[in-house]
Amino acid sequence: xxxxxxxxxxxxxxxxxxxxxxxxxxxxxxxxxxxxxxxxxxxxxxxxxxxxxxxxxxxxxxxxxxxxxxxxxxxxxxxxxxxxxxxxxxxxxxxxxxxxxxxxxxxxxxxxxxxxxxxxxxxxxxxxxxxxxxxxxxxxxxxxxxxxxxxxxxxxxxxxxxxxxxxxxxxxxxxxxxxxxxxxxxxxxxxxxxxxxxxxxxxxxxxxxxxxxxxx
Length: 216
Hints:
This protein is mostly helical. The chain has helices spanning about 20-40, 55-70, 75-80, 85-90, 100-105, 110-140, 145-170, 190-215. Helix 6 (about 110-140) runs antiparallel to helix 7.
């Protein structure tokens, strides 16, 4: 029998407390500030014909830290499992802002090879998010459905496609022939791949973790 996510229990002594939440907030603030500083200093601006390795590293490093923390720190893992799944899903609705990529393409700022799949993919995930909030509110067991898992998997796949097309653009489109992918390595757009993307991936992972816990 599946268990509603909001009613999962934890072992005595492992209940997540305010300290874990405060530590996460501090880590997010430091991470965001680091991306701002590195972006302002031009660290993310790649060389012509080369893959955007600085941006890629900035996206992958937090994910590795997150994976290690949720495996090695029981308190952190329990905190994630105790979060309101509807809130986690609701944050994904912000991805409707992927329309901005399409708008930047229309204004000759970003190449279509990147802007269209990245923009439409984000918009699709963001458009469906409110539907899942309603579904989870009516039936917490919806979190264990294959459709919910598929939606989260597609949300992660969208980012993989975006990074792939961005890499292709960086290696095949000269920086002196606009539109190029170069603006994605500059502020404020670099905040998307270096901060927002890994954060949204983490949220998808937490949703899948809660789905697995609910089905146990």
